[in-house]
């Protein structure tokens, strides 16, 4: 592939999708200028469901939804002004794709200064979907619970177990922290392998646009396919209330790194399921009513996971050669989780988990400032809100065991500022706190813990 010039592409087509022997592939083409095909670049996304499908062919509605959802990885390479869907879709499906791009690529557009990337013209032949009749789904069947290797899914798993559920655990691709958490849970699991086209990685190296895509949206649709093929109940996510709050406001838009974990995407996907004639309760987040602080309070009652859970991105790198074995100790996720757990577990325990005291490293000052609301803006990572990070740091300031630690002493001089942050809760939080779709029998798992 020669140098990749994003401006040389006029459109992207979503060409189609198929499933053969449990392997799903979706096909995309960036259409070059001129329109003779000489500058076109084609890609194929592959999801190997393996044994996770059994002998059943997945529901075509969900396969089509997966093809649409995976398209963002390839669209962003050039962010052309038009997306053409080659196969028939309903207007609600095109609406889903437009909203997915608008919310899920917000950070990408912000970082690359590409506001027009959020509003491509989405076209394609119309389809009138036939009434499929009764959904046939059993809401009382055991749930499918995605596992991410961090504290949130652990809290969901253990809450459901205590309530008498026997969830089937689920993961996309193989990562050691996920496998360790699954093993500790003692539950059965299913794994799916997803592969991004290597040509996209080559294009990125040659000038294609790159940036964050809504991976949780992709994994959510994969989970729906797996749950449906195995006659399971709902796909139960572990996305918390704090993920509803964005990072920055840009050109009048709320840019949220965690948009595909937010109530906005959860609502969009549930509405799309309804339009397909599928029960929207197939998908919800158990932890939506909780803040990160409340989740941390619950996680401390699961010490069997303390040495094995990891929220740092380093062990989850796509390139296995770049994966680390443990917490990096410097990224926003490391700093946020350390700050949150420090007053809850104590200095000795968090140092044992992370390998050293992150408050003793002066290089972490800017990162902690961003986390607690005294820096530039909320980091573009899966971290909670300013007020809860500030509350946790104030608790550390009050604990004798942290006296003399360099960053703790520095933040002690800024206690008044921290208390102002801790006393404020984002307006978005107040408006979204009451919105969740947790059915009563699942909500009981939260109230019982």
Automatic annotation (TrEMBL):
Entry GO MF terms: racemase and epimerase activity, acting on amino acids and derivatives
Protein known as: UDP-N-acetyl-alpha-D-muramoyl-L-alanyl-L-glutamate epimerase
Metabolic or biological pathway, per its Swiss-Prot or TrEMBL entry: Cell wall biogenesis; peptidoglycan biosynthesis
Enzymatic reactions: UDP-N-acetyl-alpha-D-muramoyl-L-alanyl-L-glutamate + ATP + H2O = UDP-N-acetyl-alpha-D-muramoyl-L-alanyl-D-glutamate + AMP + diphosphate + H(+)
Sequence ranges assigned to domain MurL N-terminal in this UniProt record: 8-286
GO cellular component: cytoplasm
Residue ranges annotated for the MurL C-terminal domain, each copy included: 309-423
InterPro entries listed in its UniProt record: MurL, MurL_C, MurL_N
EC number per UniProt: 5.1.1.23
GO biological process: cell division; cell wall organization; peptidoglycan biosynthetic process; regulation of cell shape
Family assignment from sequence similarity: Belongs to the MurL family.
A Pfam family it matches: MurL_N
Transmembrane segments annotated in the record for this chain: none
Function comment: Cell wall formation. Catalyzes epimerization of the terminal L-glutamate in UDP-N-acetyl-alpha-D-muramoyl-L-alanyl-L-glutamate.
């Amino acid at each position: 592939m020669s140098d990749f010039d994003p401006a040389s592409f006029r459109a992207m087509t979503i060409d189609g999708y198929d499933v053969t022997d449990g392997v799903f592939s979706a096909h995309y083409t960036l259409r070059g200028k001129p329109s003779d095909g000489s500058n076109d670049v084609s890609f194929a996304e592959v999801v190997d469901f393996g044994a996770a499908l059994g002998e059943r062919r997945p529901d075509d509605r969900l396969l089509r939804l997966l093809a649409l959802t995976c398209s963002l990885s390839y669209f962003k390479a050039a962010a052309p002004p038009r997306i053409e869907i080659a196969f028939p879709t309903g207007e609600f499906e095109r609406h889903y794709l437009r909203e997915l791009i608008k919310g899920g690529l917000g950070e990408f557009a912000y970082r690359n200064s590409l506001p027009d990337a959020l509003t491509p013209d989405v076209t394609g032949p119309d389809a009138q979907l036939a009434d499929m009749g009764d959904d046939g789904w059993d809401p009382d069947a055991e749930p499918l619970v995605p596992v991410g290797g961090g504290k949130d899914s652990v809290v969901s798993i253990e809450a459901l177990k205590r309530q008498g559920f026997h969830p089937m655990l689920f993961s996309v691709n193989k990562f050691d922290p996920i496998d360790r958490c699954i093993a500790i849970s003692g539950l059965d699991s299913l794994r799916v392998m997803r592969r991004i086209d290597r040509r996209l990685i080559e294009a990125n190296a040659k000038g294609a646009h790159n940036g964050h895509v809504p991976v949780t949206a992709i994994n959510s649709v994969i989970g729906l396919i797996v749950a449906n093929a195995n006659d399971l109940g709902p796909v139960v996510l572990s996305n918390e209330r704090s993920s509803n709050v964005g990072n920055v406001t840009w050109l009048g838009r709320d840019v949220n790194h965690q948009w595909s974990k937010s109530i906005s995407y959860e609502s969009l996907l549930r509405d799309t399921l309804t339009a397909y004639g599928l029960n929207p309760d197939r998908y919800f987040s158990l932890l939506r009513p909780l803040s990160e602080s409340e989740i941390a309070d619950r996680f401390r009652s699961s010490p069997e996971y303390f040495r094995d859970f990891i929220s740092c991105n380093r062990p989850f790198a796509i390139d296995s050669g770049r994966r680390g074995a443990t917490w990096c100790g410097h990224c926003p996720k490391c700093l946020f989780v350390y700050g949150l757990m420090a007053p809850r577990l104590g200095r000795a325990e968090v140092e044992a988990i992370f390998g050293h005291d992150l408050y003793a490293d002066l290089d972490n000052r800017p990162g902690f400032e961003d986390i607690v609301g005294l820096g530039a803006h909320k980091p573009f990572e899966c971290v909670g809100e300013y007020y809860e990070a500030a509350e946790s740091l104030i608790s550390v300031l009050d604990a004798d065991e942290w006296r003399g630690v360099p960053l703790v002493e520095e933040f002690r001089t800024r206690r008044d500022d921290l208390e102002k942050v801790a006393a404020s809760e984002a307006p978005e939080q107040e408006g979204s706190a009451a919105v969740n779709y947790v059915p009563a029998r699942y909500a009981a798992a939260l109230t019982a813990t």
